C-alpha cells in the first residue's frame, strides 16, 4: 500500500492551519496512510488529527543542517515506502529529506531555491494569502486555480482526555472554564499587557462567580502569567482563587484537552489561538504587530480585535517605536465587551488604560 508523508512546520499554529491539506489528501487517496514528520514540540497537535496514521518525531537540532543524520533518517523513510511527500517548511534542509529518501513525488513551495529537491513546485506569487488556503493549495496542481472554499482545520479530543487534563490541573469538572493564552513565541510585541488580562479576569469572576480561568502556555510564558497573578494580588479573593497559572505545568496534549472543554478563550496571535479555533471553541483573538487577516481565527464564534494603527502590522518581535500602542490601546473593557456575549449575561469591567 502506498503511503503519504507530510513534513510539518515548526510552529504549532502553522501545523494546525495545515490540517485542511490532510483533509483534501484523504479525500483524494482514501486508502493511503498519511504519516507526519514533526518536531517533538509540535507532534502532539498532529496526534489529535483523525487523518494522521502515525507521527514521526524529527531527531534534528533546530537550525542545524546535520547532513549525515538526515541521510540516515532518509534511509529509514525509504524503507516505509512513501510515494509522495509534502514539504511544508520552506527551508532547504527539510526538502533534502524526501529527496534523499528517494520519494518519487515531492511537493512544496519554492522556498530556498529548492529546484530538484522539490519536483512539484508551487509559487506564492499571488498577494499574501491566509495560511489555511496557503497550505491547502499544495493538494492541487501548481497551475490549478485557487480554491474558492477550503475546509476548516479540525482537531479531535475525547472526553477522557479532557477529564484527565482537568483533574491533573485541579480544575473543577462542574465549573465553567475560560482560558487565557497570554504568551507568544514570536516575541513580546504580540503580548497583550498582563494588567489587562488581570482586569479581564476580575470582570469574568464578577460576572460568573463559579468561573475558573486557566492561564496556559509554555515554560517561556510562565513569567508573563506570573505577572497576571501578581496584578490580582490586591483584588478580592474570589478573583485570585479563580485563576490557575498552568503555564509550563501542562504538556501540549493536556493544554489542547483543556482548551477543548473551555467555554471561551482569549488569546494573543499564538499557536493556542489556532488550537482553539480547530476545536471550534469561542475565541477572542488580540492582534497588534501581526495582520489579523493573515492568520485569523476560524471558529464558528470568533472575533478578532485589532486597532489597525498606521504603524501596524509591523511584524516585529518588539515594538520598534517603543510605545506598543497597538496592544496597550486594546483595553480590557473592549475585550470584555466582545467576550461577554460568548459567556452570556451582562457585565462591565474597568479599563486600566483609561486612567
Characterization of this structure:
With 355 residues, the chain is α/β, with parallel strands linked by helices. It has two domains: 3-139, Rossmann fold (3-Layer(aba) Sandwich); 160-348, Rossmann fold. Helix content is 35%, strand content 15%. The chain is built from 14 helices and twelve strands. Strands 3-2-1-4-5-6 form a six-stranded parallel sheet, with helices on both faces. Strand 10 (264-268), helix 12 (271-278) and strand 11 form a beta-alpha-beta unit. The chain is globular. It starts with a strand and ends in a 12-residue tail after the last helix. Residues 346-355 have low confidence and may be disordered.
Which terms would index this structure?
alpha/beta; Rossmann fold; six-stranded parallel beta sheet; 35% helix; 15% strand; disordered C terminus; transferase; ADP-heptose-lipopolysaccharide heptosyltransferase activity
